[in-house]
Amino acid sequence: MRAAPSYDSDGSPKVMGYWRRLPAVQQDLLLAALVGVVWFVGLAAINGSQLRPKNPSVSVVTGLFLVMTVALVRQVPRTMLLCVSLLYPLFYAAAETGLAEQLGFSFLRAPAISDAALQSELHLIPLLVVGYLAAASGVRRFTCLFFTMGSLAALMIGLPAVVAIVMSNVSESVYRYGERYANLPRDIYSLYDYIDISLFVFAEALICGMVLLGANALRRRKNMLVLEQRNSALVRLRTIEAERAAAAERTRIARDLHDVVSHHMSAVVIRAQAADRVADQKPEALREAVRWIAASGREALTAMRETVRVLNNGVPGSGVEMAPVPDLADVARMGDRLKAVGINVTMQLPTRSRQLASATDLTAVRIIQEALTNVMVHAKATAAHVSWQSGPQGELLTIDDNGSGGPPPVNALETARRQESGRGNGLIGMRERAHASGGTLAVAAGPLGGWRVQAWLPPQR
Fold first, then answer.
1. Cα–Cα distance between 242 and 377 in angstroms, integer?
2. Which neighbouring-strand residues pair with 396?
3. b/e for 153-170, b at 16 or more Cβ within 10 A?
4. Which segments of the chain belong to CATH 3.30.565.10?
5. What's the average model confidence in pLDDT over 407-415?
6. Backbone dihedral region for residue 317 (phi beyond 0: left; psi -120 to 50: alpha; all else: beta)
7. Angle 324-433-332 from CA coordinates, rounded to 5°
8. Could you tell me which residue, 328 or 415, shows the higher pLDDT?
9. CATH number of 343-461: 1.10.260.40, 3.30.565.10, 3.40.50.720, 3.40.640.10?
10. How far is CA 460 from CA 87, 201, 282, 397, in A?
């Protein structure tokens, strides 16, 4: 039973993962070694068959240049482009025709057979590979085309031309080499028999295509790099946005819990303190206060449970619209709680048929709730007035009290921001709620002798 292949975390086989982790130099050397083994083993395998090349030394030169190209072109692309383009035709000619021996280079002996043309289309591989890899490594397309196509022209046209020129100027002693020189061109006119124009045009087009493929591979690699960078930037932005959303959600939760707990518990504490002061003289007032405290506590717990339920069931990132929205009856009960602790509250609210379902309505309710809590806890007031005017221009909220603490400072909101304690927390929360809805909030002296908190919220969309 065949074992199942193993894969990396990205889903690719482990062999591919190991290959990608190798440095580029090691990849090129290993690939060049593999190409060399395949080329020379194949050459040795066909050496004793009918497929044996006419001149094996030319194929050896081709294999050596191919191995060097694969091994080095990505590291030094321009250098290898020059070396292969200039030296490959030279060594190919020297190995094929034996002209080097005629010129005195005895280390390049005349081959067993001599020719003056491209022996096999496979011998174009070094030029194809160097053109593709050099263009893929960043060498300009024009440069790659100029050298590789020029090298091919030297190989297929220049080689017979050089042979013809040399043969026309050598002595008759060259014929001692026998029939292997019989068919070599001896003048420029005889070159037409050695140049296959159709093959030459096809080979030039093939080299041009390989260079363009290499340039396209480079462009795709650059595009992939840009996309990876953009993806990384988007991931970072999403992380930052998620952190901002989490911070905003924490702030919203803190505000909602503060509104619920502060308003209800402040009323409970004040009512309990008042009942404690008259408990000995009026036991029935204590009993009534206890009943009222129990009812207010249940109402606070219900509101807190509703907030927690929304937090548990709400869709992440849905924002304020998932919060529980009170109705106008809840706003009226806020005034009743203040009346229970001795503060006469009058309210001018929108019509009872209105449904409070938008984020702007929730903001308005929370601002009224917080302002009344401040009146109850800090203002030392006996009367307050709440006005909620709704129209095409938006929502206008006004909360006045007759507190004895005196008028607010001119820069009450800035002072509250710096202190961040006491009444300032409520003012900061109201201002942030108003700004979050696109509105404004101001604090000034009111007509009743105490403070006036006035907020404007934009029209509902």
1. 37
2. 389, 456
3. ebbbebbbbbbbebbeee
4. 343-461
5. 67
6. left
7. 55
8. 328
9. 3.30.565.10
10. 79, 74, 50, 15
